[in-house]
Amino acid sequence: MIEIQAFKNSLVQCFGKGDVPKKVLVALSGGVDSVCMTYLLSQYRDKFNPEMKLHAVTIDHNYRKESAEEARKVGELVSKWKVDHYVVPLTYEKPLDQITNFELVARTKRYDVFDNLAKQLNIHNIFVAHNYNDQLETCMQRIRAQSTVFGLTGLKQRALIPIPNKLPFDYVKPIEVVRPLLSFSKKEIIDTCVQNNIQWFEDKTNQDIFLTDRNLYRVALNEYIPEVLKKNPDSDFKSISYEKIGETIQQSKALVSYVQARTKTLRESMLEKDQLRFDPKNGIVSLKMDKSAFLENGPLALGRFLFEILHPYSASQNYFWSFTKVLNKVVPRLNRIVEEGTFSPQRFTILHLVFDVRVFDDNVVIRISRQPVSGPAWNKVIQNHKSSSGMSDWILYDNRYWLRFRSSYDATFTIVPYYPPKHFPMLKKQYLGGIPGMAATSTPLIMFKNGDLSLPTYNLAPSSFYVEWHLKDNAIIELE
């Protein structure tokens, strides 16, 4: 059973030096985990934090006939604990049995609901009831997917919500997912509900091994593997028992902690020495490293360093899942160039980024910029918009630049990648100076129907048009 003091300690650990928030949103499925977490939060509030306001949302996936009635009963249950409850039904474009990636689709839809409701309620923390068993299942799933050591650390107690940002961080505080039950086992959670006579609802689809991969791993770890090991303790399956996977997680965390410390030291040292420069206006990162430091840091630390600093500058839609590409493609390519010691400039492209590398006697100079947009990619990057006297909503252009605008008259325009050979002469006709050359390639250029042009990152715009811009926030190192 989970004692309230142990739960309080877990909450404090989740938020580190910060205070536990006064207002939270609970992802409440009605299963034993989320019901237990909601109960414990209400007990924590009553005993330690009486000003805390609890909201809970239940997602009705419409996968089972009884799901709507269960959602209603869940609301009745938590209302006794002074929890405001919301039910949100989901709809799908196809019948559920025709959705091949149902797990991913459902997860994305759930987090969209959480994000929207949290913002409506002015809440910044969504509590999710993943437990220690879930942690092990996640690790097993990632082992199967050949994850890097960073993935093998499992779920985090606190992380940014896993959906694209809808606004710059300067204008809205990012939503965080909080997991206070990660250190508690499924048995402890069930015992807590049983001993406190708390009802919960079993979702039979959680045992459907054909519905999601996680269900398959859950059944394997909880039922199949223990049964095999009971009959044959020396079976090969002992390497993927709960105990062994738990050891893998702890070993991975120790290694990742070491790598992150080295990465942070490298980043701070290079910034202090002016060896790392960020140029948001042109979308360029420049770095200069001693040859010895470049080779001595090792592929894991170097790969993580590059992965972290380059996130805002890459147009890749799948960047969050691309550390393996950086580790297996970027780092070996850079190492090979440095070891060969060729003095001629070297260039390669990965993750919509161009790496220009120069090797000198004692150091390596790398310039990283947006891959020029051409061919079929051009049409995917172009955006059409309208502006009026009121400030527009923020839009994310090319998955790199946040833009919003207003004009003194109703204006229609197109945003395209700046291509100096074509657009520089056009800008020169409109502006007296301050027009960039090739360095600004692929930054956003606004083209009006009347022929006017605007280059937001250089503050070039017609007098009747106002535009704000921000480079995409670095969500990867936001919680460091």
Automatic annotation (TrEMBL):
Does tRNA processing count among this protein's keywords? yes
Q: Which CDD domains match?
A: TilS_N
UniProt EC number: 6.3.4.19
Q: What Pfam families does this protein map onto?
A: ATP_bind_3 (PF01171)
> From the UniProt record, which GO molecular function terms apply?
ATP binding; tRNA(Ile)-lysidine synthase activity
Q: Which residues form the tRNA(Ile)-lysidine/2-thiocytidine synthase N-terminal domain?
A: 23-218
The biological processes this protein is annotated with in GO are:
tRNA processing
Q: What are the protein's UniProt keywords?
A: ATP-binding, Ligase, Nucleotide-binding, tRNA processing
* Gene3D superfamilies xrefs: HUPs
Q: Which reaction(s) are listed as its catalytic activity?
A: cytidine(34) in tRNA(Ile2) + L-lysine + ATP = lysidine(34) in tRNA(Ile2) + AMP + diphosphate + H(+)
The record's HAMAP family line, in alphabetical order, gives: tRNA_Ile_lys_synt (MF_01161)
Which NCBIfam families does the protein's record reference? Answer: lysidine_TilS_N (TIGR02432)
Supply the name of the protein. Answer: tRNA(Ile)-lysidine synthetase
In its UniProt entry, the species of origin is given as Candida tenuis (strain ATCC 10573 / BCRC 21748 / CBS 615 / JCM 9827 / NBRC 10315 / NRRL Y-1498 / VKM Y-70)
